[in-house]
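Final paragraph of the annual report: two paired records, presented back to back.
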Amino acid sequence: MAKTIKKELFNPLVSIVIPVYNGSNYLREAIDSALAQTYKNIEIIVVNDGSTDNTEEIVKSYGKKLRYFKKENGGVSTALNLGIKESKGEYISWLSHDDLYYPNKIEKQINKLSDIKSENRNITIIFSHFDALVMDSGKRINNFEKILYKNMEDPYYTYSMLDCFFSSKLNGCTLLLPRCIFEKFGFFDLNRKTIQDYILFITFFKCGIKYIFLDEVLVISRHHKEQDTSRKMDIHLCELNFLYKWAFDLFKDKFQEMPMWQFNHFLKIVKKRGLDKVYTHMLSGWACKQYSKNKINIWMYWENELGKRTPDYIYLCWKSIINYNCNDFNIKILTDDDIDTFLPKINKKYLSLSKIAHKADYIRFNLLYRYGGIWLDSDFVSFRSLLPVVEKINKNGFVCMGYQQKNRKFFPLIGFLGTKSCNPVFKKVILNIDNYLNKKNNIREQPKWDEIGGLNLGKYINNKNCYKYDSSFFCPHEVQFHGSVPECFNSNDNFSLFTLKNNQFAFGQNIANSVLSEEIKNMTEDEIISSKSFIGDLLRFGVSTNYPIVEFNSVSDDVPMIKSKVEIRKMYSLYENTKLSLKRKIKDYILISFYKVDKIVPKKIRRKVKPKLIKYSFVRKYLIK
């Protein structure tokens, strides 16, 4: 009885605001659904945003049952704002002219609100499920999206609300909002055409307004070709880019608290919408969760060819780098917008370079000269932290990989570079490229492959100013040694930084401090072979005597297995013996290129298994936590 009296006492006036522009096809049904509400303490406000059809005639046919305002066309935001300002109710409920309320919409929400402490009602928004009705087909789509949290104190509350915003689970017409929060925090943004609702609702959330979810369907959202999001798709996509970047930056601290597996849910949302730059922005922002000026930067950059999207494998590579290095480094995945931010004085003539690789060459040299750090091409996959590279940078000032040419000179491969800032070598390289750009008036005359990259850098490298890693650790088939390491390299220090060339894996030597060694050091030989460890998989899924050739995804029954225990013991002894030749060891992986990963699998397997399955399962299973 006490509860009934409480609800009877809580009987606030609710203003239903219906903005309309040329909506005569749907308006009457929307108004009727508002008038049919079982909760009777309501006022209905219709704002005509300069319609040129018979909207006014329809509205006036209802007489004094509703309040009517007419204005010049200015967009839905202006109409909503006018309706809210003219309203007399304590609470606002927005109804689009083409949507419908179920009869108990307001009553259910007022009842839910009455269960809340009176002092919290003016800072609480109630929202619910909605159905979607496709007008062209007449098909009704049940929109029972899963909402994790049950109340405001639930540990999933923040995550679920961010999910609602990013996944568009929140429909503005399902909301019941206190009128006072508009006066306190602002109205709908007049400069936005399709996202003005989400900008305001996210702002309310950021300002501490509580959202309570009512697990019932109370609204029908009708979808048709005349809606703004359908007619203004180019504008909508542009505004979505802004919305997601803005929302991520607004709640960056909350996103950075999430583990990768949880944050990945939000990355999938923006990827599904085709917002590649937003994806890059969010992933890079998440990776910088522990930014420090004392940490070295890892720089990565990817630019798509015109009309193409970022390949999925590039995203996987980025995630692997972040997974193992975000605690030890400042990781920045660059977009075109970031170039102007980090390099405001860069020579804009580099944009005349037609090849993306040449643009990337110029960008990498400028970034490393100004800020220092490690540059990685975006097709690298990480197996563990790159901290050993930092030791070499601190000691030598500059590190790179490369190989000895026939003339015994060193040729650098610039997919991996590490340096301190203001390195004079990089200054000379940049000046050379600037001179090239300033002299080449004809933009059709493009540099030859590697002319401004490796060939340019190679002029200034010597044993005194650079620590050089043997590229056989990156491309073993390209350079094969028998005996000692060539003279052009600093030492026999076989650091394990890897890429893939000519269909072969490469691997380095330093096992003593490896993560893999720690993983299996207390295990017997049989335990290793039967375990789910990385080394166990190497042994089980086939290892050649020269290079590991491994199928990490057993999608085929024909995966080659090591047949005899003699072979297994042989490979295990190779792993233990750190003094064996480079070509006869299972070594400590750190990085490897995603490029052509499928080619390492024997041909008879490749014929039966899709290359993508081999590539993607390898990275997902072993590298992405």
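The closing record of the year follows.
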Amino acid sequence: MRTILILMMLAMLAGVVTGCEFRRSAERLRPPVITDTSTPWRQGRMQVLTARVDISSAWEIVDVYVRHTRHFWPGPAAAHESRAQRNGPVDSVNFLAVPDQALGAPTADHMFYQWFVDYRLKAGGNEILTAHSQRQDFVVNCTQADTDLTLRVLQDLARPVLTTPNPVRDL
């Protein structure tokens, strides 16, 4: 009975060790995480988009790019594409893209964009996989406070026109 108990405990220990190793392998193979670090474009600032790519040591980055449009989002396939460069040392996780088609966007233009990373296994991986960020957007030269103020002013202007002091109820 004691021998069976010892064998069962050894089998459970082997399962725990295997489970830990499996968890470590799974963590090494998790896909890259892309975090948009761009700031909305303001007057006098360089019009660039930036992102941070956190990637496991098991993968290598093949390409980083951003797809972008102005006015509306037609989906990533129909959007313009700009290649990103590392923003810092060769091993930097920070990337910067200059969306040429969006440069010179006038105030109040709506900018939509989404980041993409093509990656593959470092150890002889030929299959290229793609990860992407959430779609992002901002209004050029316009903060949320600017938008809120404009809406309040428009409401104040429209209120007297739309208010009827003595409504007539015609039955």
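The mean pLDDT is 83. This concludes the annual technical report; the extension proposal builds directly on these records.
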